[in-house]
Amino acid sequence: MDRNFRVGSDYNVIDVVGEGAYGVVCSATHVPSGQKVAIKKITPFDHSMFCLRTLREIKLLRWFSHENIISILDIIKPPSIEEFSEVYLIQELMETDMHRVIRTQDLSDDHSQYFIYQTLRGLKALHSAAVLHRDLKPSNLLLNSNCDLKICDFGLARSAFMGEQEATGFMTEYVATRWYRAPEIMLTFKEYTKAIDIWSVGCILAEMLNGKPLFPGRDYHHQLTLILDVLGTPSLDDFYAISSHRSRDYIRALPFKKKKPFSQLYPNASALAVDLLEKCLTFNPKKRITCEEALRHPYLASYHDPEDEPDSPPLDPSFFHFDNGKEQLTREQLKELIYNEIMS
């Protein structure tokens, strides 16, 4: 990965703080103001999938303005489309992320409440705009030393109003971390709803409670087995909510499993934490708690303030026009869309 940052004289690059499949993040100083920032350098143009993710990320982060969603402070404008080979997003600098925190320390119950509250508060802004994040996991929750939390990485986010055709394409790109993936994604229910994000929040809460991932599946089958080991065999009602015959046959062939009480799995957790966990990790997405309901849950009572949990304005239906799965845009077309988005 090329670590040269071509960002002009306004930014003084300090250090690499993170690296991903198609990007590097550095800490830097904005010279005119002295503000510390993060610069995310993305080189997406080798793959149309990376281009799509970059376009989603830029459009969505510019749209949302919320305390619990990472914001874009600036984007370095390329000199011309011909010389446009990398994208530089300037963002707030956050010191760490939830993955690192969980790995290095035990969280108090109060920390868990505050972090889950902020996650749900940010998620409410997304869901009110009918956007699914689809890749919530501890490393996508950024933290600073004040315990402020911001959701990041919108490369897999989609509109909640996808038709069936788009939902089919939705899976082809689904490389989100398996451990936080809702069962309906693996069992190909016909529709994917906001409930997939709530499942991920439940998995994150579980990990905060004892420092270990709840469902660390090695592959698709192992992942489902781990989920059913805890939740038990689905009830008939939930079984018939699965529209895919293949998925039903698969579950029917598995041995019967009894539900394990979450209170036994997390004996040191508070009863309220366990209750919220159970409501987030409900097998049937239609019965899973919603973001608004979760914010009102007694576990979060010391932070919940209905006057200070803002919704977002609804997105125009054309917002995801490049992403409807009907026509495959070429890398060149996507590059032009990204260029126009940055220059607008």
Protein model, in words:
This protein has 344 residues and is of the alpha+beta class. It folds into two domains: 1-43 and 65-93, 2-Layer Sandwich (Phosphorylase Kinase, domain 1); 96-308, Orthogonal Bundle (Transferase(Phosphotransferase), domain 1), CATH 1.10.510.10. Helix content is 38%, strand content 14%. The protein has 13 helices and ten strands. The strands form three sheets. A five-stranded antiparallel sheet has the order 1-2-3-5-4, with helices on one face. It is globular. The two termini are 28 Å apart. The mean pLDDT is 91.
Annotate the secondary structure layout.
Elements: E1 11-19, E2 23-30, E3 35-42, H1 48-63, E4 72-75, E5 87-92, E6 96-97, H2 98-104, H3 109-128, E7 131-132, E8 141-143, E9 149-151, E10 158-159, H4 164-172, H5 183-186, H6 195-210, H7 220-231, H8 236-240, H9 245-252, H10 262-265, H11 271-280, H12 291-295, H13 331-343
Antiparallel strand pairs: 1-2, 2-3, 3-5, 4-5, 6-8, 7-10, 8-9
How many independent structural domains?
Answer: 2
Overall strand count: 10
SS element count, helices: 13
**Which structural class do you get from the secondary structure elements?**
alpha+beta
How would you write the strand order of the largest sheet? Answer: 1-2-3-5-4
What's the overall geometry?
Answer: globular
Mean pLDDT: 91
Annotated CATH homologous superfamily of the largest domain:
Transferase(Phosphotransferase) domain 1
Proportion of residues in β-strands:
5-15%
Radius of gyration: 21 Å
CATH class of the largest domain: Mainly Alpha
**Poorly predicted runs of 5 or more residues:** none
Q: In CATH terms, what is the fold-level topology of the largest domain?
A: Transferase(Phosphotransferase), domain 1
Keywords: ATP-binding, Kinase, Magnesium, Nucleotide-binding, Serine/threonine-protein kinase, Transferase
InterPro entries: Kinase-like_dom_sf, MAP_kinase_CS, MAPK, Prot_kinase_dom, Protein_kinase_ATP_BS, Ser/Thr_kinase_AS
Organism: Phakopsora pachyrhizi
GO molecular function: ATP binding; MAP kinase activity
